[in-house]
């Protein structure tokens, strides 16, 4: 496993990977829900992720969708997300995990 992709890197989103089994249990469960097409707890889950931070590989708008990873004890959505790309969203080509609200990403390897 390599470290998270930082905002100042030559190949954003491309080299950092994390095994699905190494993610928090909440992230593993969200990944299962994504593949099943839901149901999702937050109305923003499944919404288009714009990749404004340009941390993930460049793709056309609408390619990436974001999902909330529950953070125990958080009163709001927290900072953890899974962002997946591909069509349909339930069959993503690639998924990325961020624990710090888009400051870094790790590609999820199964």
Question: What is this structure's SSE topology?
Answer:
Elements: E1 17-19, H1 25-36, E2 47-48, E3 64-68, E4 81-85, E5 94-98, E6 106-109
Parallel strand pairs: 1-6
Antiparallel strand pairs: 2-3, 3-4, 4-5, 5-6
Cα end-to-end separation: 12 Å
User: Kindly state the mean pLDDT as a whole number?
Assistant: 87
Overall radius of gyration? 13 Å
Report the helical percentage. 10-25%
CATH structural fold name = Nuclear Transport Factor 2, Chain: A
**Which homologous superfamily in CATH is the superfamily?**
Microbial ribonucleases
Helix-strand topology string: EHEEEEE
Note the beta-strand portion.
15-25%
How many β strands by DSSP? 6
> Which term fits the overall shape?
globular
Total domain units? 1
Widest beta sheet: strand line-up: 1-6-5-4-3-2
Number of helices: 1
CATH architecture: Roll
Helix/strand-derived category reads alpha+beta
CATH class: Alpha Beta
**Which segments are poorly predicted (pLDDT under 50) over 5 or more consecutive residues?**
1-14
Main beta-sheet strand count, sense and barrel state: 6 strands, mixed
Describe the model.
The protein is of the alpha+beta class. The chain has 1 helix and 6 strands. It has one domain: Microbial ribonucleases (Nuclear Transport Factor 2, Chain: A). The chain has one helix spanning 25-36, and strands spanning 17-19, 47-48, 64-68, 81-85, 94-98, 106-109. A 6-stranded mixed beta sheet has the order 1-6-5-4-3-2, with helices on one face. β4 (81-85) and β5 form a beta hairpin. The longest helix is centred in the first third of the chain and has 12 residues, at 25-36. The two termini are 12 Å apart.
